[in-house]
């Protein structure tokens, strides 16, 4: 039985900013355990561990597996990778719903791109837009354009905790609320996010609050949990969130952290299992210009760098 760890580096179509860090390439690890794969790709700015730390823990876990031991990694990205590579996946999963499109970039450029897109002919049911990045007037103008040109599309907004309570309130007071599906993480503190919801009527979703494992409670305006398995870690912790969402009548949106095509495939399968009725937040693959798998899902080992390969006694 074979155990292996690979490293990849895939160029972004254009450099992307992650919490003030500019990245030109997405770097991560692929783990193979007896022919089944997992991906370990901490995201700078969002993960608390570095790729080097994840690599060291992954190598130690593989060595333990080769001695026939069971492993329980600590780092979230490593937990996700090892859990995927050791999971008994359901065999008859339906295909996941297509992800909703993700818009990222300067408002003026996005307004221009909107004119050239074929969205008016076939509008998506949902569309996500990053906010709290450019001047508020510009972002509100873009939202106004999207809302009038795509009246049948619900907008998902994501502020990544970028506003104070007052800023978020000023922004939300001017939103076309009937067309806003929900706003992810307006403020860093959960109490501020709830206060903004109550003051303005906006529906909200939690994302970083969940991966930081902060306390939260249900509220009539809390509508969805955005679950990023690479950041949350173990699949059982993700499943616990899915259960809590179901018990509280919250939607579940499985979301990526800019994983490779292999990781996005795994996340798509989890989405079809855990959130069969909600389009996932997995529209990040088009930012990468290269792949690690073929169209049929085989890993192209020539596109990745082998760090370790071992036989297991078990
Ligand atoms: O959730 C999605 O639709 C796509 C993924 C996404 O937006 C994202 C990707 C990497 C880091 C943070 C985020 C985010 O939701 O803020
Ligand atoms: Mg988010």
Automatic annotation (TrEMBL):
InterPro entries assigned: Enolase-like_C_sf (IPR036849), Enolase-like_N (IPR029017), Enolase_C-like (IPR029065), Mandel_Rmase/mucon_lact_enz_CS (IPR018110), Mandelate_racemase_C (IPR013342), OSB_synthase_MenC1 (IPR010196), OSBS_N (IPR041338)
Annotated EC: 4.2.1.113
The entry's keywords: Lyase, Magnesium, Menaquinone biosynthesis, Metal-binding
CDD domains reported in the protein's UniProt record: OSBS (cd03320)
Gene3D superfamilies from the UniProt entry: Enolase-like C-terminal domain (3.20.20.120), Enolase-like, N-terminal domain (3.30.390.10)
Residues the record lists as binding Mg(2+): 158, 184, 207
Pfam families: MenC_N, MR_MLE_C
SUPFAM superfamilies in the record: Enolase C-terminal domain-like, Enolase N-terminal domain-like
Enzyme class: lyase
Mandelate racemase/muconate lactonizing enzyme C-terminal domain span: 107-203
Domain of life: Bacteria
Cofactor: a divalent metal cation
Catalytic-site annotation from UniProt: 130 (proton donor), 228 (proton acceptor)
A molecular function GO annotation: O-succinylbenzoate synthase activity
Family listed: Belongs to the mandelate racemase/muconate lactonizing enzyme family. MenC type 1 subfamily.
Role, per record: Converts 2-succinyl-6-hydroxy-2,4-cyclohexadiene-1-carboxylate (SHCHC) to 2-succinylbenzoate (OSB).
UniProt-recorded name of the protein: o-succinylbenzoate synthase
């Amino acid at each position: 039985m074979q155990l292996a760890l690979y490293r990849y580096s895939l160029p972004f179509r254009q450099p992307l900013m992650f919490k003030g860090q500019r990245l030109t390439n997405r770097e991560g690890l692929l783990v193979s355990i007896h022919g089944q794969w997992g991906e370990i790709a901490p995201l700078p700015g969002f993960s608390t561990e570095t790729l080097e730390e994840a690599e060291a823990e992954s190598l130690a876990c593989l060595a333990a597996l080769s001695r026939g031991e069971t492993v329980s990694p600590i780092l979230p990205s490593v937990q996700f990778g090892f859990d995927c590579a050791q999971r008994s996946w359901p065999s008859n999963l339906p295909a996941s719903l297509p992800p909703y499109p993700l818009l990222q970039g300067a408002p003026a450029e996005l307004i221009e791109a909107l004119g050239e897109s074929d969205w008016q002919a076939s509008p998506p049911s949902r569309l996500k837009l990053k906010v709290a990045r450019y001047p508020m007037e510009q972002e509100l103008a873009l939202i106004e354009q999207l809302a009038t040109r795509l009246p049948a599309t619900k907008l998902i907004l994501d502020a990544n905790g970028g506003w104070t309570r007052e800023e978020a309130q000023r922004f939300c007071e001017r939103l076309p609320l009937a067309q806003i599906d929900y706003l992810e993480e307006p403020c860093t503190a959960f109490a501020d996010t709830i206060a903004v919801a109550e003051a303005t009527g906006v529906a909200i979703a939690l994302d970083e609050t969940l991966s930081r494992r902060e306390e939260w409670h249900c509220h009539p305006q809390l509508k969805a949990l955005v679950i990023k398995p690479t950041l949350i870690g173990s699949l059982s912790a993700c499943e616990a969130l899915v259960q809590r969402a179901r018990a509280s009548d919250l939607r579940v949106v499985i979301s990526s952290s800019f994983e490779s095509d292999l990781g996005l495939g795994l996340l798509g399968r989890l989405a079809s299992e855990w959130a069969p009725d909600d389009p996932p937040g997995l529209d990040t693959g088009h930012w990468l210009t290269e792949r690690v798998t073929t169209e049929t899902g085989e890993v192209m080992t020539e596109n990745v760098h082998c760090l370790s390969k071992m036989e297991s006694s078990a």
